[in-house]
Amino acid sequence: MEREKLLNAIKPRMPEKRYIHTVGVMETAIQLAQRYDEDVKKAEIAAILHDIAKYADEEWMREIVRINQLGDELISWGSEILHGPVGAWIAQTEFQIDDDAILNAIRYHTTGRANMMKLEKILFIADMIEPNRKFPGVDNLREIAQQDLTVAMRACIHHSVAHLIKTELAIYPWSIECYNYYIRED
Questions:
Q1: Angle, vertex CA 52, rays to CA 99 and CA 152, nearest 5
Q2: Do the Cβ atoms of 65 and 86 come closer than 8 Å?
Q3: pTM of the prediction?
């Protein structure tokens, strides 16, 4: 699907600030895909669609999870966790995306998971370091992302988990598995 058609399809589904974020993620994912020899078109599509469900009704997302058997463990979590797997479902059903790499990148872009494929890492990192992100340490993460994708993945999941601990928020099991996997990677 063409970039402009996808962008036009997602724009009405999110506030302007989130749309600007999505464009930033797209540009960052494209740049990382070029740098790390990943399919640029797949990175572009995954980035554009990554937050397609971010502002969907939470109860509707739970119903989608139940009906489509996306994982009972998701039901008790909020939109921060639900929007990834439900976004992958929307990409597949509404936009006819059938590429597992794209769907998994969308599915795990918030939580991560152990042993992520290259496109999954690219989207996870791009979502965290896109130019509109402003948090302490983001510039360091941006620098690391230009040097080594796996080291950047480790740094990003470490930052994410540390933030959740600091703010006393529950950590989804996939994120813990992701952290444990990448902290052991050399």
A1: 70
A2: yes
A3: 0.96
